Amino acid sequence: MISLLRGEVLVRRADHVVILCGGVGYRAAVSAQTLGHVPACGREVSLHTHLLAREDALTLYGFHCEEERDLFLMLLSVQAIGPKVALAILSQGPVRELAGAIAAGDSRRFLCAPGVGKRTAERLVVELRERVAGESALVGSMAAPAGAEAGAPALTAAAPRILAREGLVELGYSLGEAEALLGECAGESAEELIAGALKRARGVV
Q1: Nearest to 159 by CA among 151, 171, 148
Q2: What is the DSSP string of 55-122?
């Protein structure tokens, strides 16, 4: 199994890249999010990968982080979602934002992805909601404060709003915007608060 590529970018297209590793060029299909992390041709890049083997083809998929690969594999487990649709979903936003939408049960968040209809979006949320909420890598990336050091003691359960605020800041919101979005959001955990805030940001509530 090819799980990581590190080498020179030879080709950079809208839906794939080619990475030169040890004299061999590996073509990897990528999401728009990952493509945004791939530098210009001639520069070095590292991509986490997943090799999908089928009777008629071997297809390599590249991801800028392990969390994106994990969510890709979860999406593939949902009926009617194949690799192409999974990449289209991943192209809709940062992994932690998509994971937050799934955890919040926000199926409408995925309707803008090509190939995803209302029924598929609802099935996606129903089948993955508990898995995403229980996945420490995805949930941790949503709630971890920006700049937190490895091995640092975790904040206590008494401070979920602080964690949620820091998580929103890490998503790109300003401190003021994060405070405004949290507003009257209710929840016992940072994940619930973030999910509520993201709903408010999209005008769902």
Answers
A1: 148
A2: TTEEEEEEESSHHHHHHHHHHHTSTT--HHHHHHHHTTS-HHHHHHHHHHT-GGGGTTSTT--HHHHH
Which option is the CATH number for 4-63: 3.10.20.310, 2.40.50.140, 3.40.50.300, 3.20.20.140? 2.40.50.140
pLDDT for 37 equals 93
Give me the pLDDT at residue 28, please: 97
Q: pLDDT, tens digit, for every residue of 112-164?
A: 999 999 999 999 999 998 888 777 556 554 433 333 334 433 333 335 777 77
Q: Is the pLDDT of residue 21 over 50?
A: yes
Contact between residue 102 and residue 129 where contact means Cβ atoms under 8 Å apart? yes
Round the CA-based radius of gyration of the chain to a whole number and report it.
18
Q: Which fold has domain 67-137?
A: DNA polymerase; domain 1 (1.10.150)
Q: CB-based contacts of 12: which residues, under 8 Å, 6+ apart?
A: 35, 38, 40, 41
Q: What is the DSSP letter of 157?
A: T
pLDDT on residue 138: 67
